[in-house]
Structure prediction request, 142 residues.
Amino acid sequence: MPEEYRQASRDFEAVLVDLRDHAMLATTHRAFTTLEAVLRVFRRRLTVAEGLAFADLLPVGLRALFVSHWDCHQPALPFLSRTEMMAEVLALRHNHNLSTDTAIEDVVTVLRRHLDENALQMFLAGLSSPALSFWGFEPLAD
Prediction:
């Protein structure tokens, strides 16, 4: 069994703890909701093919969360302003969502520490400038 699968729970917990601490959330339960919400907001902007390609960049636990409960028949949405996308983040389990006002930036910062930064940037550059911006990268020079 590949090590990635053997250590999936430990690696996923490490991301949650990192997000909890970075965003100063009280629990990993809150970090989980924040993480799930931000991943869903990003996922809504991808086609199914793009989303599956993105999922391949993620560790096993994050990959599972990213594709979980995906209505793949919905068309990809355009990237919106950060404020509008933050409203989407807060809409997930809104009665129990205690995400920070900087949830997107918090998740992006933490996930970039746990992903192959070069592979992520190259993938996003193949999508769009707004996708790069969502993940905190500057558009690549032509």
